[in-house]
Predict the 3D structure of the following.
Amino acid sequence: MKVLFAASEAMPLVKTGGLADVVGALPKALAAQGIDVTVILPKYGEIPKEIADRTVTLAVMDVQLGWRRQYCGLQEVYVDGVRFLLVDNEFYFKRGYLYGYGDEAERFAFFSFAVLEALAHLDALPDIIHCHDWQTGLIPFLLKTRYSNLPGYRDIRTLFTIHNLQYQGVFSRDLVQDLLSTGDEAFTKDGLEFYGGASCMKAGLRFADKLSTVSYTYSFEIQGEEYGEKLDGVIRQRAGDLWGILNGIDTEVYDPMTDPNVVVPYSDSIPDKRKNKTALQRELGLIVDEKAPLIGIVSRLTRQKGFDLIGEVIDEMMKENVQLVVLGTGEQGIESMLYGAQQRYPGRIVVWYGFNESLARRIYAASDLYLMPSRFEPCGLSQLIALRYRTVPIVRETGGLKDTVESYNEFTGTGNGFSFGPASAYDLLFTVKRALAFYRKPKHWEKIVENGAARDYGWASSALLYDKLYKELVG
Ligand code: ADP
């Protein structure tokens, strides 16, 4: 079976969040099931030079976008045994960042057309195009409409995976109509129309043959108004085609024994892990104190991640003898809140603004606790990485956090972390205090860490479910 992954980011080429981890790791796990996966991505300027220099040009073509014909190169490169195809157009993709430009609709409409045009230049057509998030939502729509009469294209099946329903790619209808050269018929309630605009996410949800999302709990949450982001009705209509398949992590990449970023490699030894804490305290200018519980956060700084809740109780939290390290990029209001706290607690809070893979790993390794009080969380990989690094997660019970973190029960000795239900700052504070109480009781702490280490956070079982889903798709 041949599967083409179409996505906007993938490790180890480019990453802004968990999507890149998934698109980087899942193909390897699927290969172990005998599935032949190729990943197609835009060729961003941020792709490491060492990889960009190794690309081989497979084809040069034109992509028709509205009234314009745009240059499009199709390049191939193998990275860690995975085949990547890169869509090259420097005007669209050689920029400082991956996202956040005024012409996102045009960039990803171009990418969607390019993916479908690229098929004609491959040795064989894929059985399935597996699309990820709104940036690729137009592909199932175009395949079912514009491209359906090309030889073989009608047999290609599509799977659309929702990694985060909040980002939808909604643009003005005129703009999308112009880019796609479509008539009014595409913009009905059953089509791309979304509150007067046009939605790329909805295009994926309506036109893909099957849908999936990245945890079991989130697959139900998004069918209701609270988490449905105004698309719950559309999702409910397709509930029979929607699968919830939990993400995993690449347990070879994320391994505290072999991770080159980790100062003192460790597996089950808490004393060895704590050497990483003192090393990070020294590196970042925190007070060097092996006993002080260190809480880590590596995250996009957005409301989704519950930073408003943290902001409300940060001073209360700091009354305990804790330290806090935050690595992230995002909203300015959150950044200011964190910098304010850093100034109030010198030597006890450090905020590092930016994207830094290597520091991220040292934070996962050094922290005793990992804080992730998300308002919603489709799956969340950070808590899985934390667990892999024997760092105890404190999470809100939502989406994938609910499916992966079980609150510690001191009577039965079960549980790998701490969790709370309501999105309330006081529940968060109470839960942090509860976690700290157990941190101070080594017997309990060892048990919690051990429970976390005992579980497998890899891809093997979820790859089996994707295999099953793909088989259902191709009948
Ligand atoms: P999301 O995809 O919503 O951002 P996830 O928890 O699913 O959240 O995945 C986030 C991924 O991005 C994790 O691998 C996390 O370590 C990484 N990450 C987030 N922010 C940063 C940062 N500033 N520097 C390095 N890695 C980061």
In short: DSSP finds 18 helices and 18 strands in the chain. The two ends are 12 Å apart (CA to CA). The pocket of adenosine-5'-diphosphate is lined by residues 17-19, 21, 298-300, 327-329, 355-357, 360, 379-382, 385 (CB under 6 Å). The longest helix spans residues 104-118.
